[in-house]
Every structure is written in C-alpha cells, then in structure tokens.
Design a protein that fits this description.
The structure holds two protein chains of two kinds.
Chain A lengths: L5 H12 L5 E5 L3 E7 L5 E7 H8 L7 E3 L4 E4 L15 E2 L4 E7 L2 E6 L4 E6 L6 E2 L4 E7 L1
Antiparallel strand pairs in A: 1-2, 2-3, 4-11, 5-7, 5-10, 6-9, 7-8, 9-11
Chain B lengths: L1 E5 L5 E3 L19 H11 L7 E4 L4 E5 L3 E7 L5 E2 L2 E2 L4 E5 L4 E4 L12 E4 L34 E2 L14 E2 L2 H4 L3 E2 L2 E8 L8 H9 L2 E7 L3 E5 L15 E2 L4 E3 L7 E3 L6 E2 L3 E5 L4 H6 L5 E6 L2 H23 L7 H5 L1
Parallel strand pairs in B: 14-22
Antiparallel strand pairs in B: 1-4, 1-11, 2-3, 3-10, 4-9, 5-8, 5-10, 6-7, 6-9, 13-14, 14-21, 15-16, 15-22, 16-19, 17-20, 18-19, 18-21
The chains are: A mainly beta, B alpha+beta.
Chain lengths: ~140, ~325
C-alpha cells in the first residue's frame, strides 16, 4: 500500500468516519499515516516519517526498547504465579518472555528479541497499553 | 511424534470421556480437568475433546521426534524445553530432538495437581466406543488400555505444525471462574436422593465443614474426611444402582466419597449429593491434603454454572481465533 495515495487515504477516512474508532495509525518502514476523527465527524490525516512519529510519541526511545505489538493490559507475572517474569538487572535469553499483554482471556507474551540484561521495566501491572507503547528496556550483550 | 523418556505412574491419554456408554456398564473415564483439556485444545485450534496426555505423577520427560506444536495447561510444573522455561497455559513449538521436562506442580494457595499436554489434532490413538480415553478398569482405550510407559511413542493426529500465528496463552479458569468459600476451593452440590435421610445436624455439617481430601483419592474417587461424620436418621440398606461422576456417596463410617472420572457405573452406598458437572474440574485439580467446601445449589444453578463454563470456552475459542492466521485452522472451525 502507498501511504501517500490520497484517494486511498480518503477511502480509509470515510471508512473510519463510519466507525466508533477515534484514531488509526499505520506505520510503514519510512512513513507513518495517522488518521484522527475531529469533532463534527471530519477526519484529519497526517503523513510523517516513521522515525519522527516514533520520536514524537516517545522521547525515551532507544533501539533496545521492546514495544507492545498489540493493545492489551500489562501483566508482569503469569496469573498462576506470583513472581514477575523478569526483574530489572536480570539477564535474559533471546525468545524469553518478559511480560504478558492480556486481551480478554488471551495472554500474549512479549519476548526478548535478543540476549541481554533488563535495564528497566517501563510499565506497571494493570497498565493499559496501545500498539507501540514502550514496555521494557534491554541492554544487549 | 513424541517419545516418553520418563513417566511417573498413571500418565494416561484422555479426552472428554466415553459418554453414552454407562448403559452398558462402561464408566466414562476422561480428563479430570475437562476445562484444562479444552483450553489446551483451543490454543492449538483442535476440537475441545481432542485426546491429550494427562499427567498426575511428576516429573514427566519426553522427546519430540519431529517438529511440532504443543500446548500445556493445568497444573504449573515449571515446564522446560531443552532447559528453557515455558509459560504455563500456553502453546509452544518444539523442534525435533528437543526434550520437554514437566516438574512437580508449584505449591501455593492456588496449587493444582494435574497437567495436560495437547498435540495438534489430538493424540492419535484409536477411538473405542466413541472415545480415546483410557478405560483403566476395562483395559481399553488410550494407548493399549494402559498408562504410558517409558519408551512409548505417540503421534499427533495432525502432525504438521499447526499454523499458529503466535504462541499465546489463556487466563486459566481458576482465575477466570474463581469459586472459593472462606478461602477454600468450593464445589457446588445438588442434594441427591438420600439427602433427606440424613439428620438435620449432619446435613448442616456437610455444608458448614471443610472436607479434607485424603490419601485414598484418585481418578476413581476422592475419599474425604471431616470432623463430623454424616449420620443417617436410620440405617440405610440399598440395592446397587447407577451412579455418575460427581455423586457423593456416604459409606457407613459417615465420611463421604466423591465419584470421579474412573468411578464405577454402579454403587450401593446412599447418595447425599452430586458435585455439579460444571465444578468437577475444580475437584479434579484439588490436591491430596487440601480441604474443600460444599455449596448447595439447585437444578437451575447447576445449569447456569454449566452455561457459564460453556460461554467461557466459547469466548476463549473466539478470542484465540483472532490471533490465528486467516487461512488457518481457526477459520476452518468457525
């Protein structure tokens, strides 16, 4: 898809206006499209470089920040366990689950993309996060 | 394909049970925690009643002989795959040669006692009288009608890895559908045919007291012990009659027995009540030594509870399907 295709953006905006969704963000490798419903039913569209969109949304951005791949409620411990999956300072292996995002009854694990050490957990249990929300900082090995 | 490297006693293949065969005197067998079985199957896109491996004596060690997905539900035994910790109540992928280790269930207030290992399409054993559950008394069903042994090899009915988009988990029903009274695991009970033949004090004691699950408790039945044995108004003598899992019998010593999945199809002890179908999984997970409480319910309450369970499973299946690939198994089953 072309994030600069005006006819396509217009069609998307029309579809958005017919829903109860307030905001829509599509991030490509280079560009990010943001649609937001304004009061009165109009839809504002904005296209900006993805790097700038990320920086604007999160000043604490570092390359090793793991982000939410889904909307969800943060769980640092599995519901049958008491202890958190990881603590700040702990070493982690690639693929190791660091926390869970709960969506309804489903638990989505957020896993380390590479081996390293947990620098900081940026969210608290019960936090509601959206797509791209920074979750955990990893200091790579 | 998996190979059992080390198993404790009484690891068996179980599905939802051999329903409809009681009329021939064949007990139902089936998973002690049918919700955990269904949840594991849902995580793999299987039908709810696909056969799985029920583990109740730990540790269990097995090797995957081919790449394959699997799901673990039920008791949290700190499962590891080649040493890497696995999340409980989740789907995972194994590579050929990897070893799965399932240890003792974790202690704690929400401790449970049976784990389920589900495979894509279910464990591939022949159906006998409409079920793949191991019928221990009759020595049929499951794998050759017996518990698993070291060296046994089992196939998944759909051995190619299911096209799971993500290896997600489910919030366990213990947390999603909690039922506790005074901090103890509680079970809803329908008064049964001989309820009125017990003294008023005994009936009150039955509901009021905690009942300890004794060492003489297994897949056949749970023998309970309480401080006030249950006394009939007059001695009861009965002919043997049909019974089902969940029936609470009272032998002459006044300490109740709850029939479980491998229970006999007939019995001669008086019946004080029946643990409702919707709560049998709670008892099936209660460890020996734990104390449980009984809560009185009625026919409507029992049906509502069953509906609540069905709705939970249906919703879990719907939500899991949202994360499956569009051309995957979940859509085919929708």
């Amino acid at each position: 898809m072309n994030l600069q295709d005006k006819a396509w953006i217009q069609a998307l905006a029309t579809q958005l206006a017919a829903t109860d969704i307030d905001q829509l963000e599509l991030a490509g490798p280079a560009l990010t499209l943001r649609l937001a419903r304004a009061p009165g039913g109009a839809v504002d569209a904005e296209v900006l470089p993805t790097a700038q969109a990320v920086a604007a949304g999160d000043t604490a951005y570092t390359p090793m920040t793991l982000r939410a791949g889904s909307v969800g409620v943060v769980r640092l411990a599995h519901p049958v366990r008491e202890e958190a999956l990881v603590q700040a300072g702990e070493p982690v292996a690639a693929g190791q689950p660091l926390l869970l995002l709960q969506v309804g009854q489903v638990l989505l694990p957020v896993t380390a993309t590479r081996a390293g050490r947990v620098r900081q957990v940026l969210v608290a249990p019960g936090d509601m996060v959206g797509y791209g929300h920074p979750l955990v900082e990893i200091e790579p090995d | 394909m998996i190979e059992v490297l080390h198993t404790g006693a009484l690891t068996t293949v179980q599905d939802m049970g051999r329903l409809g065969a009681l009329r021939w005197g064949v007990g139902t067998a089936g998973a002690m925690d049918r919700l955990a079985l269904a949840a594991g199957n849902i995580l793999l896109g299987n039908d709810d009643d696909a056969a799985a491996i029920e583990v109740q004596v730990f540790p269990l060690r097995l090797r995957f002989l081919a790449d394959g997905d699997f799901a673990l539900t039920g008791a949290d035994g700190d499962a590891r795959l080649d040493g890497q910790p696995l999340l409980p109540w989740s789907a995972h992928r194994a590579r050929a040669g990897q070893e799965l280790h399932l240890g003792l269930p974790r202690l704690g207030p929400a401790r449970t006692s049976r784990s389920y290992l589900c495979l894509p399409g279910g464990v591939d054993v022949p159906a006998v009288l409409g079920s793949r559950s191991t019928q221990m008394r009759g020595a049929f069903g499951g794998l050759e009608g017996r518990p698993l042994r070291n060296g046994d090899q089992l196939r998944a009915a759909a051995p190619q890895p299911a096209r799971l988009a993500r290896f997600h988990g489910l919030v366990p029903p213990e947390q999603a559908l909690p039922l506790r009274v005074d901090g103890l695991r509680a079970l809803r009970v329908l008064p049964a045919a001989e309820y009125d033949k017990y003294t008023a004090e005994s009936r009150a004691a039955f509901w009021r007291n905690p009942w300890k699950i004794t060492m003489q408790s297994d897949r056949y039945g749970y023998r309970l012990a309480g401080d006030e044995p249950l006394q009939p108004v007059a001695a009861l003598e009965m002919r043997s009659h049909g019974i089902v899992p969940g029936v609470i019998q009272v032998p002459p010593d006044g300490q109740p027995i709850v029939q479980m999945r491998d229970g006999q199809p007939t019995g001669g002890y008086p019946k004080l009540g029946t643990v409702i179908e919707a709560d049998l999984w709670r008892l099936g997970q209660a460890p020996i030594g734990e104390r449980v409480r009984f809560v009185e319910t009625d026919w409507e309450g029992a049906l509502d509870a069953l509906e609540e369970t069905r709705a939970w499973l249906q919703e879990a299946r719907r939500q899991v399907a949202l994360y499956a690939p569009l051309d995957g198994l979940a859509e085919a089953r929708a």
